[in-house]
Design a protein that fits this description.
The complex is a heterodimer. By secondary structure, chain A is an alpha/beta fold. Chain A is built from 5 helices and 6 strands; from the N terminus they run E-E-H-E-E-H-E-H-H-E-H. Chain A has one domain: STAS domain (Transcription Regulator spoIIAA), CATH 3.30.750. Chain A is globular, with a radius of gyration of 12 Å. Chain B starts with a strand and ends in a 6-residue tail after the last strand. Chain B is built from 3 helices and 5 strands, in the order E-H-H-E-E-H-E-E. By secondary structure, chain B is α+β, with helices and mostly antiparallel strands. Chain B is globular, with a radius of gyration of 15 Å. In chain B, strands 1-2-3-5-4 form a 5-stranded antiparallel sheet. The chains are: A alpha/beta, B alpha+beta. Chains A and B meet through helix 2 and helix 3 of A and helix 1, helix 2 and helix 3 of B.
Chain lengths: ~110, ~140
């Protein structure tokens, strides 16, 4: 899994590529936690190149979402592939974490 | 049939999962179905890695992949750890809000959601977890 972060209009745009499995998932939460500690608040996560996610990945996302929510920030997911989207749908995560069709659509919500 | 045996450690996750992926691909399962199989297999393996053996006391996991007479993929995980029966499975609450939702509890749910059958057996000192995957996910 690769994580690339940049700023766009004051929002953190974080792209996650590859596989978010039980081995790689904790590094996502660590990265988000690090950015929060630097004072960043709003996040859009670009999943267009995320190929696979397991429950460990969802846990890492949920833990990150809770921390961001605690700091009154926004945490939006964008551009999920079908197989990843299906995991969000059947787990019910789709109902608790905002998901947008594109990065631009998510950015315009902040 | 494919059979591999490795220590029950997270660093071996990719070895096990790629063996299953290659076996399924060789037997012409679709890319979509393989992703679903990978997900169920990861959840099964992570449960075993984390819970089968007491902390500090290592152990091994044996994986067997085969096809049955109905051309379904049969994945079997065996460990000689603490007796475990996941049959008494209850679906987690999938409707609660972000800050109320407990972190965890989804692994067994995904196994059941993705596989045609999930079964647990104990034979002698061995836990046997069997995942059965047809060519497409059941509704």
């Amino acid at each position: 899994m690769e994580i690339e972060a940049r700023k766009k209009n004051g929002t953190n745009l974080v792209q996650v590529k590859g596989r978010m499995d039980a081995v790689s998932a904790p590094s996502f939460e660590e990265r988000i936690t690090g950015m929060l500690q630097e004072g960043d608040k709003n996040f859009v996560i670009d999943f267009s190149e995320l190929e696979y996610i397991s429950s460990a990945g969802l846990r890492s996302i949920l833990a990150s979402a809770k921390k961001i929510k605690a700091g009154q920030g926004a945490f939006l997911l964008a551009d999920l592939r079908d197989t990843v989207k299906e995991v969000f749908e059947i787990s019910g995560f789709k109902a608790i974490i905002p998901i947008y069709d594109s990065v631009d659509a998510a950015l315009s919500e902040i | 049939m494919v059979r591999i045996r490795l220590s029950a450690e997270m660093q071996n996750l990719e070895h096990f999962v790629s063996a299953i992926r290659e076996y399924a691909a060789r037997h012409t399962f679709t890319e979509k179905r393989i992703r679903e199989i990978e997900l169920a297999a990861e959840e099964a393996l992570v449960n075993i890695f984390q819970h089968a053996y007491p902390a500090g006391q290592g152990g091994e996991v044996t994986l067997e992949c085969s096809l049955n007479g109905m051309q379904q993929l049969v994945i079997r995980f065996m460990d000689t750890g603490i007796p475990f029966d996941g049959s008494a499975f209850e679906a987690p609450d999938l409707t609660s809000e972000v800050d109320e939702r407990p972190v965890g509890g989804l692994g067994l749910f995904f196994m059941h959601a993705m596989m045609d059958e999930v079964s647990f057996h104990r034979k002698g000192d061995t836990n046997i977890l069997t995942l059965l995957a047809g060519r497409t996910k059941k509704d």
